[in-house]
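Consider the subject:
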Amino acid sequence: MLILIVLIFLHYKIIFHFQKLGNKLIFLYYILFFVLGFGVFAITYILAYSGALPNHYNSEFESKRMNDLALFCGLVSMILCVTGFFTLLFKHLFFRSKNKIKSV
């Protein structure tokens, strides 16, 4: 749970920091965030369900919980990225429609 809170905090901290630099840099950040999230999700999914992850935990339940936590972190980062894409898209469309209204 702490990882999720830190991930969300860093996501919005970086967005507000880069917001003054322009939409293209934020777009590149979202692409990087998506690739990292998808990588974590895909690699952990493949390793967890193929049995390749070492089972050095005390019980089968604890091992499954760690695998599920890694999958959850990957999914959360991808969800944050997709919501960021939509936020950036709506911001861009709203800005464009606002400029059209002023020019007419």
